[in-house]
Design goal:
Helix content: 40-55%
Radius of gyration: 17 Å
Order of helices and strands: HEHEHHEHHEHEEHEHEHEHH
Structural class: alpha/beta
Oligomer: single chain
Number of strands: 9
Strand order of the largest sheet: 5-4-3-2-1-9-8-7-6
């Protein structure tokens, strides 16, 4: 498997399916436990892994992720552990991203963070609270260290904002299908297909011939709310990627033992992987 996010999406597209992207915070339920859980997600069929960087003020996260992040912080997880987690997962050959609020990156030093992420085998960053206008240092560092940069678009994004955001993205565009905080939902938001369609139009509008970062084939991954294989299959009908986080964490939180948690995560990943393969 390739460590390139683009290659992972290209492979999924070649198989006429959506890519499956799984999220888990570093340090939850422990540093080693997170690594093993992520590997179980890969074993079950995840094409890309997002490693959450635990942060003390996760305003955009719902209660499930907040609970996991709190446990990681109480357990003493450090930024060095996050990079170690990335390195261990990337060694499986699956593209591995860090998803983080911007403050920890800024405090660490943007170029230093990019350098150490690249050294760990990471593919790039997802930055939910950073806009391209405020991210000049990150745009420069990601270019210097050949890292993907994934910004978020939302139902509230205007067409002008969609064009600015997609122009800055590399790897894929993260479409947040729900207004509000993260968390599994009982149904996929009805505005999700329209958001993906609008985002694809924006990608086409800003395409520059020969510029890979602005390719007309830049994928759109949909996140926030997918909680089972049927929903994954539904999202796979219109999005290039299906992003799942809270539902993985919930299985670890509810497991009676660490080994049972790994089994539950692996089985759930397989259910989702079967769902995204119902596309087409």
């Amino acid at each position: 498997m390739s460590t390139s996010v683009t290659s992972a999406y290209d492979q999924a597209r070649a198989e006429n399916r959506a890519a499956l992207v799984g999220y888990l915070p570093a340090g939850f339920p422990s540093v080693e436990g997170a690594i093993e859980a992520a590997k179980a997600m890969v074993d079950g069929g995840c094409d890309v892994i997002e490693v959450g960087l635990p942060y003390t003020d996760p305003l955009m996260d719902g209660p499930t992720i907040q609970d996991a992040v709190h446990q990681a912080l109480v357990g003493g997880v450090r930024l060095s552990d996050v990079f170690r987690t990335v390195e261990a997962i990337a060694a499986t050959g699956v593209p591995t991203l860090i998803m983080t609020y911007w403050n920890p990156v800024d405090r660490y030093g943007v170029d230093a963070f990019a350098r150490d992420l690249k050294s760990a085998g990471g593919a790039g960053l997802i930055t939910p609270d950073l806009t391209p206008e405020e991210g000049e240092d990150w745009l420069a560092a990601s270019d210097a260290h050949d890292l993907d940069r994934i910004f978020l678009v939302a139902l509230s994004s205007t067409d002008e904002r969609l064009e600015k955001i997609t122009k800055a993205c590399r790897g894929f565009v993260y479409a947040a299908s729900l207004m509000g905080v993260t968390g599994a939902r009982s149904a996929v938001d009805t505005g999700a297909p329209l958001l993906v369609e609008r985002t694809r139009k924006a990608i086409s509008a800003v395409r520059v011939p020969g510029a890979a970062s602005q390719s007309a084939n830049l994928p759109v991954g949909l996140g926030l709310g997918v909680g089972n294989g049927a929903q994954a299959a539904e999202v796979a009908q219109f999005a290039d990627g299906v992003i799942v986080g809270s539902a993985f964490i919930r299985r670890l939180l509810d497991a009676p033992s660490p080994s049972a948690g790994l089994d539950a995560v692996r089985e759930f990943a397989a259910e989702l992987a079967a769902g995204v393969r119902q596309k087409g």
